[in-house]
Amino acid sequence: MTPVLLAWSGGKDAAWALHALRQRADVEVVALLSTITREYGRSSMQGVRMDVLQAQARAAGLPLLQASIPAQCDNARYETAMARTLQQAQARWPELRTAAFGDLFLTEIRDYRQQQLEAVGWSLLTPLFGSHTARLAREMLAGCLVADLCCVDTSRLDAKFSGRRFDADLLDELPNAVDPCGENGEFHTCVSAGPMFAQPIALERGETVLRDGRFAYTDFTLRL
């Protein structure tokens, strides 16, 4: 089987990509890779806490690698951090040359990832790419995935959605212009249960804050 390193944001698409890859006989996910904003100790974009990411990795039964980037990060610094982490992964798993992402339909993002990986001798795998996102969202729910919205772009979706459960009621209430999986960046999620985990993760919802005058972040912490 081909070993695979899966990009891990802590959200539903990464989690469902792990589930999809584990249904295949030709690949094996050997580790997860999270891009961490070093000033905050959280996953970039999603804002998921580091200890929550680690709990997700434990529930998935996989090691979690980290690519550290600054809060104000351009493409060059991001690419350097990723290349360094891929090199570390390759040293640990010598046959590892494939990275997977939970991208759904944004071709320009997928092309960028492919170019970035090819530059360091790696291949790209996107098991969910081309999915019909309305059907995929319902498939995730039918498959017992549990997730909550942890970040909302308030220029695209009302801040009141931040912190809500990603469920059928939410999907029914989303405006028509909002992708059901938030693939255009309308929202991001934090996963706490699903078929990719051996056991659910107990999370507590914290406060919601507005950052950069645009993004509503809801904090989720491990329940003690």
Keywords:
alpha/beta; six-stranded mixed sheet; four-stranded antiparallel sheet; 6 helices
Question: If you had to describe this structure to a student in words, what would you say it looks like?
Answer:
- The protein is built from six helices and ten strands; from the N terminus they run βαββαβαβαβαβαβββ.
- It has 224 residues and is α/β, with parallel strands linked by helices.
- The strands form two sheets. Strands 1, 2, 3, 4, 5 and 6 form a six-stranded mixed beta sheet that branches. The chain has a four-stranded antiparallel beta sheet with strand order 8-7-10-9, with helices on one face.
From the N-terminal CA to the C-terminal CA, the straight-line distance is 38 Å
**SSE topology string:** EHEEHEHEHEHEHEEE
Main sheet makeup = 6 strands, mixed
Quickly give the structural class. Answer: alpha/beta
Overall pLDDT, averaged? Answer: 94
Principal-axis shape equals globular
Amount of helix: 25-40%
Number of strands: 10
Rg on CA atoms, Å: 17 Å
With helices defined by DSSP (H or I, 4 residues minimum), what is the helix count?
6
From the structure provided, what is the oligomeric state, counting identical versus distinct chains?
A: single chain
Instruction: Give the uncertain stretches in residue-range form.
Output: none
Please indicate the percent range of residues in DSSP E strands (runs of 2 or more): 25-35%
